[in-house]
Specification:
By secondary structure, the protein is mainly beta. It is built from three helices and 29 strands. It has three domains: about 90 residues, Immunoglobulin-like; about 100 residues, Immunoglobulin-like (Sandwich), CATH 2.60.40; about 140 residues, L,D-transpeptidase catalytic domain-like. The strands form eight sheets. Strands 22-21-20-28-23-29 form a six-stranded mixed sheet, with no helix packed on it. The protein is elongated.
């Protein structure tokens, strides 16, 4: 069982393109909260009249951030409300220099979200246009200024690279250092956007200490899925006085279906591709004093050649320095699938490892050439259960258990995209 420090955060590029309108209380969708006053003329004068039409004031929209607001977070969203309900049709956010910010309305109509963080210490003007349930056009503006860059920030990471292809069990993994306080997780989760093509519902699950959050669907991703992620964290204010540091973005692809299932009873690994068995391999798992973990893990890291150094283990019997070939990490604690020529004589019959899944040199090479980061590995029948958070453990629980870890309510079948 090897030991290595956890990898750094992985960041990619994201472009969000959907644009949805808000509807008022007269429609089936949720009423918006959108923008500030305008004047409209009333009905024309009667035929033959020489009097000019009398102007009628249109009830103003209410905009947030409010006009004149100062020290607003760079994560601010534009909210507005049309009195009596209606539909917001256009939002323009611009600096005093005329530079505009792209953005889009949330699907639930609650706000307009800039597609990138606002700039620090910058004055913005939001101009909103909408149609009321009375059929009249409402317009309004609000100018506000963002805060200076805060000194106390929270670190963040995204374990996904843009342009990469992952296995069907690859969760979206957000990491925070220090962890997000429990009372702040709902607000942070609202700013963590995931879209999939083809569409698949999903949910977030927070680890107990708030250092990581996983996003997955009820089942493995469909092969060929494109996953687009934006952790819109820059400027989010937290209750501990810290602020989010940066936005993390990535667009990645899901490859073919490839699963590895290990049974301690038979000491065999069965390998499936696209649902069909393509090979069965003999294995040796962890001995009783250092058992392998039972649960569903994913391949987190691949190294064709590395060195396992466990000389800091308290038990002298578990201390060694060994060169390892075809290593595929499954847990942060140091469980791997790897070739082990020294145990080939007992593979399929006896467990002798320090917690890893031992395979022969030939089988290790064969697996290594075919796996992707994010491929699922399920081990069953061992003396130890996989500990949540020891690796990307998003799939080592039922869907009902998984959604219990969300900071926001999850609709049956999972939440859809925000936009």
């Amino acid at each position: 069982m090897g030991r290595f420090a956890r990898g750094g955060a992985m960041v990619g590029a994201l472009v969000l393109t959907a644009s949805l309108a808000l509807t008022g209380c007269g429609g089936d969708q949720k009423k918006p909260e959108f923008v500030s006053g305008a004047q409209q003329t009333g009905a024309p004068a009667a035929v033959g009249s020489t009097d000019a039409p009398s102007p009628q004031a249109v009830a103003p929209l209410t905009v947030s951030p409010a006009d004149g607001a100062d020290d607003r977070p760079v994560s601010s969203e534009i909210r507005a409300k049309i009195p009596g309900g209606g539909e917001v049709t256009k939002v323009v956010l611009a600096t005093a220099d005329g530079d505009t910010v792209e953005g889009q309305l949330r699907r639930d109509g609650s706000s307009w979200v800039p597609s990138k963080p606002l700039k620090y210490r910058t004055r913005y003007t939001a101009t909103v246009t909408g149609t009321g349930t009375d059929g009249q056009t409402h317009r309004g503006t609000s100018s506000f200024t963002t805060m200076a860059k805060p000194k106390s920030m929270i670190g963040s990471g995204l374990y996904m690279f843009s342009g990469k292809t992952y296995g069907v069990a690859m969760p979206v993994v957000a990491e925070f250092s220090p962890g997000i306080p429990k009372k702040d997780r709902a607000a942070v989760q609202k700013r963590m956007f995931v879209q999939t093509d083809p569409p698949q519902r999903g949910a977030w699950h927070w680890l107990y200490n708030g250092t990581q959050a996983y996003y997955r669907a009820p089942e493995y991703w469909k092969p060929g899925t494109t996953i687009t992620v934006r952790l819109a964290l820059a400027g989010i204010p937290l209750s501990n006085g810290r602020y989010g540091n940066v936005d993390r973005v990535a667009t990645a692809k899901i490859g073919r279906s490839f699963e590895m299932k290990v049974d301690n009873a038979t000491k065999r690994m069965t390998v499936y591709q696209d649902g069909a068995v393509i090979r069965t391999l003999p294995v040796s798992l962890g001995k009783k004093s250092t058992p392998s973990s039972s649960g569903t893990m994913v391949v987190m890291e691949k190294k064709e050649s590395t060195v396992f150094d466990t000389r800091d283990e308290p038990d002298p019997d578990n201390q060694y320095v060994t060169k390892i070939d075809f290593a595929q990490r499954l847990t942060w604690g140091g469980e791997y699938i790897h070739s082990a020529p020294w145990s080939e004589g007992v593979q399929g019959r006896e467990n002798v490892s320090h917690g890893c899944v031992n395979v022969s040199m030939a089988n290790g090479r064969w697996l290594f050439a075919r796996t992707l980061i994010g491929d699922p590995v399920t081990v069953r029948g061992t003396e130890r259960k996989l500990v949540p958070g020891n690796g990307w453990t998003a799939w080592s629980m039922s869907w009902s258990e998984f959604v219990e870890g969300s900071a926001l309510p999850v609709p049956e079948g999972g939440a859809g995209p925000a936009f």
